[in-house]
Every structure is written in C-alpha cells, then in structure tokens.
Write a structure and sequence with these properties.
Length: about 450
C-alpha cells in the first residue's frame, strides 16, 4: 500500500482460470469482508474525510467497485454500459491513462451519490463480474479480477486506518469495535538472532499472485547481521520518550528533526501524554481510548521516528550497540523460511499484540505492524512496468518512498507474503507502522543463527 494506496500489477503466476469456481468464491469472500468491515459504521462515519492522506469509507467502497467496472467490465463485458458515466472521473484515484480525477483532498465533500447508491452500484457490479467469470474467454480479464481482489484487500486495510484516524479526532473518543483483545502475558526478552552472510534470492518466486514490484527475482549479497527476535514495544518506546528522545537532535536525520520541530511531535500518533511524567500514557485504538500496554508493539511511528529510536538504542544500551533498521533484503531473507502467519486482520484483534515466547527464533515477522526498513522504494534489476493505465500502479511511485515489510493487524492473511513490498513517505504514520531492530556483524555468541536462503 503506497502513500495513496499503491496497487501494483499482478506478476506472472498460475493461470487464474485453472479454477474459475475458486476465483468466484474468492471474489465473493473479499467483497463480503469489505461489507463486514463497514458494518460498525454509520452513514455519517462513511462520509467524512479526516485529512488529505485519508479517504472516506464511502470513497473506498466506490473506488474498488470503479476498478472492476473500469478495468474488467468495460473492456471485457459484452454490451458494456456503465452504472453512471460520471463515476469514471469521480472515483478515479490517480490513473492518468483513464482520464481526469476528482481532487483527493476533497473526497469528503462528495455527498452524492449517497451511501445507498454506492451499495447499489457495488451489488450491480458484483452480479456482472459473477456472470463474467465462467463465461469470458480472456485470461487477461481473469487476471485483472484477481488483481482487483488484492487491490480491494489493500483498501480494506486503508479503510481501517482511515476510520481510526477519523474517530481519533472526535473528542468523544468513540470505538470502531469495543472488544479489547489484550490479556496479561509474560514479556518476551529482546534477543539478537544472528543471520549469516551469503548470496540470497530476493523477490517473488513465481508461484501464486504477486504485484509487479515484487519482481523480477534476483540475487543479493548479505553481510553478517542480526535481527531482534521481536518488535520494539510500547514500553521500550516510552523509555525513549522519557529520556527526551523527541527533544534531542543528535538522534534525528536532518529532515526528521525539521519534521519534529515544525509538527510539534512529542510521541507516536494516538498517544496522549499525561501531566505526571511517571504515569502511563493512554493510546487511541480501534477499540477506543486505552491505557498503554508496555508489552505490545509500538505502532503509528514514522520512518523518521523509527530511525531516531534505533540511533538512541545504539547509543544508550550496550546490548544494542550498532542498532539500526534492517534492509528489506535482510528482512525477506529471514522471513522466507517462516510460516506466513501472525496477528493479521483475520484474527480480529485489529491491534498489535504482545510477542509470545516461542524458542530462540524470530517472532512477529508477519502481522502486528508493518516494519520500516532502510531501503528506498525502487525498481528491482530488470523491472518492467506494464503498459497502459494499470501500469501506473507502481513505477511512478518509485521515488521518495521507503519500504515496509511484513503486514499488520489490519492486513488480510491471504494478502501477505515474504516478498510483499509496502511503501510510504518517511513522515507517514497513520498506517499500522512499527519497527524491528537490526545490526551488522553480530557476535559469534549470539543465541541463535538464521542462514541466508541460497539462490534457487
């Protein structure tokens, strides 16, 4: 998910027409899940836009439907007729190849069509796509349907993050759902997991769906390094805050320090700092305002903040000497060997959860929070964007963005994989973003070792 919902193009993979019935079921499941995510919202909740980077829930519902009508039905449905020709401009996000777009910062001003009409549009498009799947002779149509479903799953996550931001600015501090998922757990100590040097393959393996920015698969050399066994926690971040981390320029990149000063940043997004410096802050969540839990992963921090925390940790904790953020290649090499499981949207928590002790290996690699890396979002060697309007998904965003990995508690489980590349600007923090520490040249006495996957 790029800054404004980057939706990449599907890479080559198994033919989606191999099982059209499975594609139809997947289509219905994704569309039903979007409806379920909007169930706690009123029509007023769905209308409002809280900031230019966010979009109203109604717009998300309409835009993903626009995708199927514009890129699937228009070119592949016999006797195609749009539900409403004006929607082609109104719900176009950034596809210049399709035509003009309504200004993003003004999406919350579009009161008509109303929510009921958007739902009618979705239902009509669903009926037409359901008829098209078993009848079309076009493999391109089926691949675009598959891509459209992954695009919609991106918007499911964006819908949750945008709604959280909207509710957070309401002085009533309303909850999206009031089912607090946290229970008392024993904290998992931070440990370094050593990762060996070696030549490793990075990128999508070619099996199943992928976005084009995950390709082509290529080799990278990794120097010896170590990853922290778990994510950085709220409690560890609170130590950074209490130590004056936001007031000390030496921890910050120049642009980050300018951002801290001009924006008046004193803590992660959604924290409320108490007047008593010894008291715990409160944190706004999708479950309402809650006391900070020190064992949960810190979330809603920018790249600037993540980088500053790593520098502070390296300078103030002997056991973290040399700490930094990982590269995306280091992250992927370690994650590839692990099951793609974790605290994802399907678990229903919709909040980062504490790490659970599980041996000496890496924990929380999938789910909970998107993990900032030091890698700039750029093309892999040999990357070729697709032609046409859908080719605008990725290539044009490959500047001034930083890669995040691993998914979050708002990411659908069927949408994540080791090669998935998310990306946002360095100051973005309304998404579920957090961090894991890394360092170079780990000591030989590290508790555990992970070998870099070899080429293949």
């Amino acid at each position: 998910m790029p800054q404004h919902s980057p939706q990449p193009i599907a890479a080559a993979g198994p033919r989606p027409d191999a099982d059209r019935a499975a594609l139809a079921r997947h289509y219905q499941a994704v569309r039903d899940q979007t409806r379920a995510l909007t169930a706690p919202l009123s029509s007023e909740d769905c209308q409002v836009q809280s900031m230019p980077d966010a979009s109203p829930a109604k717009w998300h519902l309409a835009h993903v439907t626009w995708f199927f009508e514009t890129f699937v039905l228009e070119p592949f449905e016999p006797d195609f007729k749009p539900f409403n020709p004006a929607f082609r401009v109104l719900y176009n996000s950034y596809y210049n190849g399709v035509g003009e777009q309504f200004p993003r910062p003004q999406r919350g001003l579009v009161t008509r069509p109303d929510l009921a009409e958007v739902w009618r549009w979705r239902e009509q498009v669903d009926e037409r796509i359901t008829r098209l799947i078993p009848r079309t002779d076009s493999l391109d149509a089926l691949r675009l349907i598959e891509m459209g479903l992954h695009h919609e799953q991106q918007h499911q996550e964006l819908l949750l993050t945008d709604i959280k931001h909207l509710l957070s600015i309401n002085p009533l501090r309303p909850a999206y759902q009031r089912v607090w998922p946290l229970v008392s757990v024993s904290p998992v100590p931070a440990r370094w997991v050593a990762c060996e040097a070696g030549l490793t393959d990075i990128g999508h393996r070619g099996e199943g769906f992928a976005f084009d920015n995950e390709t082509p698969r290529h080799r990278q050399w990794l120097e010896p390094h170590a990853l922290m066994n778990r994510l950085v926690t709220h409690g560890e971040w609170l130590d950074f805050v209490r130590d004056g981390g936001y007031a000390e320029p030496r921890w910050w990149l120049s642009a980050g320090w300018d951002w801290v000063r001009t924006q008046g940043v004193r803590a992660p997004l959604y924290w409320t700092l108490p007047q008593d410096a010894n008291a715990l802050p409160t944190v706004f969540t999708l479950h309402g305002e809650m006391p900070l839990d020190p064992h949960t992963p810190v979330v809603h921090v920018s790249y600037f903040e993540a980088d500053a925390f790593a520098r502070w940790s390296a300078a103030t904790h002997a056991e973290h000497a040399g700490a930094r953020l990982p590269t995306e290649a280091e992250w992927e090499a370690a994650a590839t060997a692990l099951p793609e499981q974790g605290n994802l949207q399907d678990a229903g928590a919709l909040h980062p959860m504490p790490a659970r002790a599980a041996g000496s290996g890496l924990l929380q690699m999938y789910g909970d929070v998107w993990e900032w890396t030091t890698s700039s979002y750029s093309a892999y060697p040999g990357y070729q964007p697709m032609e046409g309007a859908v080719g605008e998904y990725n290539g044009k965003f490959m500047v001034n963005q930083t890669v995040l990995r691993g998914g979050s508690c708002a990411t659908p489980a069927s949408h994540i994989r080791a090669s998935y590349r998310n990306f946002f600007p360095t100051d973005a923090r309304w998404q579920f973003s957090g961090l894991r520490l890394a360092k170079s040249s780990p000591p030989r006495s590290a508790a555990a070792r992970v070998a870099a996957p070899r080429g293949g």
